[in-house]
Design goal:
The chain is an alpha+beta fold and 134 residues long. Strands 1, 2, 3, 4, 5, 6 and 7 form a seven-stranded mixed sheet that branches. The protein has helices spanning 15-21, 32-39, 96-101, 109-112, 123-133, and strands at 3-8, 23-26, 46-51, 57-64, 69-70, 80-95, 118-120. The protein has five helices and seven strands; from the N terminus they run βαβαββββααβα.
Length: 134
């Protein structure tokens, strides 16, 4: 099982929207590296939803519920999507400033490649994020 961080602009589609909808198709990703990550996702993978923009905060969890498949709304076969279902909000959202200040996250793609919308989360970093969220 892999773990991922998925970024979303809360004004476009927030974690609260996902909770209300219960599930959604995670689409709109066009970056080559992010699409490569989506192609490696599997049903059951865990996700942290991260709000971008002014918030810059990890806010909740979700689960991948499908294998990657071609985006049915795109004319480009290279664009893939996955289905996700809402998990729980983090008891204490974790800000980007907190993540940057914690040595446990040194070298993480979230910090190294800030524009990347799909980021793998190594197990140790996932565990640390969950600790910070308690």
């Amino acid at each position: 099982m892999a773990r991922w961080l998925l970024k979303t602009e809360p004004g476009t589609y927030s974690f609260d929207d996902l909770v209300k909808d219960r599930k959604t198709v995670w689409n709109g990703v066009t970056n080559t590296t992010a699409l490569k990550h989506i192609r490696t996702m599997a049903k059951g993978d865990e996700v942290i939803i991260y709000h971008t923009g002014d918030e810059r905060t990890a806010v909740g969890t979700a689960t991948i519920t499908s294998k990657p498949y071609p985006d049915p709304e795109a004319d480009d076969e290279k664009l893939v999507v996955v289905d996700i279902k809402a998990g729980k909000p983090l008891a204490s959202p974790v800000t980007l400033a907190t993540i940057k200040a914690d040595k446990a996250f040194a070298g993480w793609d979230l910090l190294r490649i800030g524009r990347l919308s799909v980021v793998p989360v190594p197990d140790a970093m996932w565990d640390r994020l969950m600790e910070l969220a308690e």
